Structure prediction request, 897 residues.
Amino acid sequence: MIGATISHYKITEKLGEGGMGVVYKAEDTKLERTVALKFLAGHLLNDEEAKARFLREAKAAAGLHHPNICPVHEIGEAEGRTFLSMAFLEGESLEARIERGPLPLKEALDIGRQVAEGLEAAHEKGVVHRDIKPANVMVDAKGRATIMDFGLAHLTEASRLTKADQTMGTVAYMSPEQAQGMEVDNRSDNWALGVVLYEMVRGQRPFQGEYDQALLFEIVHQEPEPLTGVRAGVPMELEFIVGKCLAKDPSNRYSDADEIAKDLRILAEKLKSGRSTVLQATDMASTGTATPPMEQSAGPAEAVATKPTSPRSLRVILGLIAFALLVLLFVHFTEAPQETALRRFSLAPSRLDTSDTRAGAAVSPNGRHITFGAEGFSGLLRVQDIDQDEPRELLGTEGASLPFWSPDSEFIAFAAHGELRRISVHGGTVGRICSIPGQAFYGATWSPSGESIVFSSAGGSSMGSLFEVAAQGGAPTELVVPGDVDETGIAASRPHFLAGPGRILLFTVGSATASTMYIKDLDTGRTENLGPGDRPVYSASTGHLLYQEQRNSYDVWARSLSPETLGFTAAAFPVRQNARQPSLAEDGTLVYLDGRSEAALPLVWLDRSGAKVSDTGVSFRNSTNPQPRISPDGSRVSFIDDQRVWVQDLSRGSRIRLGEDAGISIFAAWAPDGEQVAFTSTHVVEAGIFMTSADGSGETVVVQNGPMPEALNDWSLDGHRLVYTLLTNSGMDLRYVERQDDGSWEDHSFLQSPSSEAWGRISPNGRYLAYLSDESGTREIYVQPFPEGGARTPVSTKGGYGITWNRDGTELFYIEDREHMVSVEVSTDDEFSVGDTKRLFRYPFRVGSFAAPPYDVSPDGQRFLVRGTAPESGAASMPKIRVVLNWYEEFRDREKN
Prediction:
């Protein structure tokens, strides 16, 4: 082709070749200009319909005129081959530039802004690029960025996953909706720009799958490592810009590219003026990124020739310099407030417990210690001293939940075995404070004076109230009843005292899916509604309230709060994405957990001795309890991941998500024929029970909903009844819905008492219901005739959790005292009777109080499907404890503006 003339173009040089075709440098003999000719590969144009679509797209692209878009001069054909004539651009591709290493922030922001401006111009004309990547961006010697190949991406959309030479480089920039074969719009280009921004700053792409399917899975299901955690000097503003570009849900993404350009422009101006705080050199050890030494410029004295200085003159000069330095230091330390440099680092302890109901990483008020729990029922509390390399265990704290600190940082209190307890930060004897009135513990706080503790408890005799008890021990008294402040709330939880004078208490009132924050002056009784949010903590050093945006939303926000007016004084602003359970020290040290695990956890088969039999091929990432449920024929399994119900075929490995429009979905149960799956969801304002086809087809229909949360428990084998637990202001009740002849479902009460009864499981013959109750003061398992009720038979004697029937009805399985898998021989033929009890094996993970069974039993009763442990290769992506010293420093200028 070199030297040949195609139409009026003389080809002079081959520029490159790829899956799309070949690009040549050519001379336009008519207009006497240099152009780039792109001949499309033959396999892309064999389909006449695809070719026609390409021509339409290319014509639309030819109508784009913008400094950051490569002009298309002509679309032509020669010798049966279609070609494009485009402007010839001097410079190099952004891909080649990134291969040399991460770009300086200023350069990355400038290129990103230009690409965003070019995309906005195209989007205004109704043109979506669909293939934004570094290879399609050219950068000239003056730093001007130009987008290439508009109009080409649509043609290759259907074939890119099957072409060996077009896989990784293109798939890596696909949006989740592209990866799932959905329709795309401008927001897919904005996603790809986020990937490019990330790659420019880090030097590698955010998603690193080794093959196409693994890469697609990461794009759809995983979050990339935050930029501020992988490169020093990255401002939080950039992390938020990239994070918004890479939002999985397009509705949470930038809708217009000019918004990206605007934010990048503002950030560049702030960096230029020094108003954006970035990571300091002290972070290098934790980020692994080297920082070059500061450049030192010569002072005026070095530029002027002088005669040698005598020793006496030198002593005088040095004395004057020393005196001047002393004066400067005196002025600095007496007139200017000292500010601690912003610094971030991470802790990655083994077996870190990240469950919302038990774990948490709490920083001491003096900022010197962090306490956290270890996974497993017998896991001990640990303390990480900031100045030490390794954490230490606190003996005697087995089963501890949600630890919290005394105001003097000398003691840690926690809930364990139905009691509130305390231990010195240095270890030693564990002291008892009081019994917890209810069966569920939802956090506590020590009063600023150190004299009392306020804690939340629900179940049993408690409706989910806040209680106060003397820190030295005694009888707790009810302090806040949720119905007194919020008629719709189920429980008051997450209490937190504001440090300082007075007794001002923060807390939340809500259900399992939503909560509202309140602030109460305990001295005056005044209470104010602060709006939606969860886990509020107060930053005394800055005057801000930090909180999770919502109970099931893993983003931490901040808002200026006045203890005097009990109200907000400014707008909220985001602090961290993919973050939860914030904890604050008095000096501004912020500690939090990653919002979601990035390490895949498997479901595995164990035999009756607890030995692993095999893997299942099922993995999940974002659920402490995946609630596995085996289909009636044993071929599929439903499970919970990222608060959604999934179904996976155990032989083929294919998986689908159910109830796409159903919001948060949990507590699934199979229909006896395996054709449908029912589950609890927050599809509407009231939580309810819904049903959909197990293959994902058809509509999601409402079975039952009401003003209180309804947790689905089981589906009878005759298909006629669904049992559920109703959460009320006084505890938990058992109810069921029954299918009528017309297909509707009629609601019935089964068990309602002053105690909490929950998680009913129907016997295979449908005649009995096994359930949990705390009527004895501890959670035990009982069995009653169903649905007519009658005399109940106790089954467990040492605490029982997670009930499951063997499918032949001859055994009941449960977890005793949250530790041991137990089998009980039972008979359901005539009257219910209990036989021998056997401990089978030690269950490897902690079980929640009234939680759904975290396992299932194979149809033959010989294997148990349970959550496995993360492979060692996934340890690096397991949730971490994140620490930020002087958290507000990076937002100080932003809030001023």
Observations:
- The two ends are 59 Å apart (CA to CA).
